[in-house]
Amino acid sequence: MPNQTQPQHPVQRERKKVPFRGGGFKPRPIRFVAPFVFLVLVLFWEFGSQTGFISNLVLPAPSEAFHAFMDLYNSGLLWKHVSTSLYRLVFGWCIGTALGILVGLLIGLFSLARASLLPLTSAFFPIPKIALLPLFIIWFGIGEGSKVATILFGTFFPTVIATYGGVDNVERGLIRMGQSFGMSRFSIVRKIILPGALPAILSGARISASIAIILLVAAEMIGAEYGIGAYVLMAGSLFATDQLIVGVAMLSILGLCVSWLIGRTEKALLNWRG
Amino acid sequence: MQISIENLSHCYGAIDVLSNVNLTFNPGEIAVIIGPSGCGKSTLLRLMGGLEEPCQGAAYIAGQVPEGSLNPLTYIFQDFALLPWRSVAGNISLVLEDHKLSKRESEAIINDVLTRTNLSEFHDALPRQLSGGMKQRVAIARALAVRPAFLLMDEPLSALDSQTRELLMDDLVELWAREKFSACYVTHNLGEAVRLGHKVIVLSRRPGQVRDVVEIRIPLEERRERSAELEDVQQQLWQMMREEALAADRELADA
């Protein structure tokens, strides 16, 4: 039976490779692209200003902004502005976040707290805290109090929402495991629920930190002598656009630093996610 | 120590899950509960260990709790329930931390249970680094750490592939031969039931009732070789379960 060893369908000569159609949809980090893009943009901007392609009235050249920055540095006021702003930001954000985590935990854990505080949170969250600034000034004084309070309230509500969402998403199986081993309620909250909610709390912190910077400037625009916001406001009212650019750039760098810090915290605390 | 369930019924809202269950679990033996899906076998286990409250009747503990037992009724879960942010040792220490043990004592317990389950080299590994079988071994080690009087095992092998399941079954048999632990083992897998059970409790479909209790007298250690005899038992169990499973399968989930 010689036929049996022969394939019934002979291999066809004419053939095509199966076209590849998978892959993609998976962005990966590429180093040095971000600074390069930034550098190209600034160089283009400087070049445009030098050649008159970009009018100085429309946008001051980066070199002018740099001079303004050096002026600010030499006047000795740079650190005064930055430290004042940092103090308000850190103070307001820390207290707002701490209170937010506490209230978020209460909402996540207790039915009564959820029934009473959650509607309140939903009602207060969308109110622009800037609109309340005059009230805050009456309540907490024109000094630091009203500015810190604005940031505090601004960071409090997003943190509450992130925290109780995180608590809700902790696997019920893990909590049941804790109960089945006779762990106390406090231990379950501290060792199972809090670490389980931490990823959500940290991504909430990212959002609340950006909100805090926005509110910082808004609060400093009313009745502040020092601070980055006050500097920007002053520059704006004098139409000193080079100083304005310096102020805005400082805010942007502040935002980058905060984002980097939270990224480091995430890496340190959430390394178990791999 | 003995666990007895007396006239126990349970319902979720209008749905009766268990009705009038009477059972006794004796020390030193593995009782397997089988039944079609949704018959309330996992619920029964949760009621036994006090994770849920029955609507009627109760589960009782009779006799003295063995001395030194930190958590007499201890669960092993289908999904392992390991904390992903704690290492293997950390997961075991978690259940010891509420029991006022000195650091040295709890470390000794951790090392002891890790040795007994052949996990010593995974002391510092994180759960995500472990395979499913290893995760369940860690969960077993964690359960042994609190010196349980009764192990309540809720489909412990159902999340594993069949080869890992075989390996873990051998481990459990070996463990039982050494420690003669008492267990209530819930599964829907008849193969596991006849390999591990001294007695097999068959539940009917919802509302779960005890349909039959089958004793298997072949010693656990010999069951691997005497699979032909076990096959008969398994067939007998399957005949009992077949109709129930068929009917349960055709029920609407929220009817």
Automatic annotation (TrEMBL), chain A:
**SUPFAM superfamilies reported for this sequence:** MetI-like
State the InterPro entries in the record: MetI-like, MetI-like_sf
- The residue ranges crossing the membrane are 30-48, 86-110, 117-142, 148-167, 211-232, 244-263
Domain (ABC transmembrane type-1): residue spans on this chain: 82-262
Task: List, alphabetically, the PROSITE patterns matched.
Answer: ABC_TM1
Show the GO cellular component annotation of the record.
plasma membrane
Report how it sits in the membrane. Multi-pass membrane protein
Task: Give UniProt keywords alphabetically.
Answer: Cell membrane, Membrane, Transmembrane, Transmembrane helix, Transport
Give the source's domain of life in one word. Answer: Bacteria
Keyword field contains Transport: yes
Query: Which compartments is it annotated to reside in?
Result: Cell membrane
Q: Name one GO biological process term.
A: alkanesulfonate transmembrane transport
Pfam name, any one: BPD_transp_1
The Swiss-Prot or TrEMBL record describes its family as follows: Belongs to the binding-protein-dependent transport system permease family.
Q: Return the protein name.
A: Putative aliphatic sulfonates transport permease protein SsuC
Give the organism the record lists: Pseudovibrio axinellae
Q: What is the lineage of its organism?
A: Bacteria, Pseudomonadati, Pseudomonadota, Alphaproteobacteria, Hyphomicrobiales
UniProtKB/TrEMBL annotation, chain B:
Q: Does the keyword Methyltransferase apply?
A: no
User: What are the recorded GO MF terms, alphabetically?
Assistant: ATP binding; ATP hydrolysis activity
Q: Main EC class of this protein? A: hydrolase
Mind listing the UniProt keywords for this protein, alphabetically? ATP-binding, Hydrolase, Nucleotide-binding, Transport
Residue ranges annotated for the ABC transporter domain, each copy included: 3-230
Q: What is its EC number?
A: 3.6.3.-
Q: What is this protein called?
A: Bicarbonate transport ATP-binding protein CmpD
Q: Which organism is it from?
A: Pseudovibrio axinellae
State the taxonomy lineage: Bacteria, Pseudomonadati, Pseudomonadota, Alphaproteobacteria, Hyphomicrobiales
